[in-house]
Amino acid sequence: VNVKETGQVLLVNYEDLDNLTVTSIGTAQFLHDGGWDSSHRYFMTAANNSDKVVVIDSKDRKLAAIVEVGKIPHPGRGANFVHPQFGPVWGTSHLGDDTISLIGTDPVNHPEHAWKVVSTLKGQGGGSLFIKTHPKSTNLYVDTTFNPSAQIAQSAAVFDINNLEGGYKVLPIAEWSGIEGGSRRVVQPEYNEAGDEVWFSVWSGQDEESAIVVVDDKTLK
């Protein structure tokens, strides 16, 4: 449980619902969203206005690390994948800049990379809310929902995990929606269970038309 402005994380053992055990862990202020690393041992959560990612060890019930990242990280649940060079990583995009920070998450087999930013990718722009991949995919999707440029806010970037240095491809999600008016902000890519489709929301105003656009993960169409 993130007690957001205080920087406290409450780790609640609910094995016995009548006698809850709560561990309070001091971290960094302005905690927001986050998710598990690929081992499901470490909880990675953004302290967004502190420009940090906090790592909680749920097994030993203690703080594992605080990692400096870009400006105002906003990972959603973040994105786990195996980096060709650095091994298992967890990624976050940012509201405040155009970077994607990749943090090493394997202290056993890759201790030299654990809890460090091992790579920083350059995306379309700031204003990102969600980053996503899937164990069966080699693609990494990044939205830019709150970017001031309509063209950037209405599209999404996709990286090839096997060629991250090759940059990104832009998907014109709002255009594909067929909606004519409204802000058409593209947000929150989510995979289907099979990992072969990615679903994007297209947001407009309360009285305007919105949509969901489904993209084929293989063809990117």
From TrEMBL:
Per the record, the domain of life is: Bacteria
Q: One Pfam annotation, family name?
A: Cytochrom_D1
Q: What is this protein called?
A: Nitrite reductase
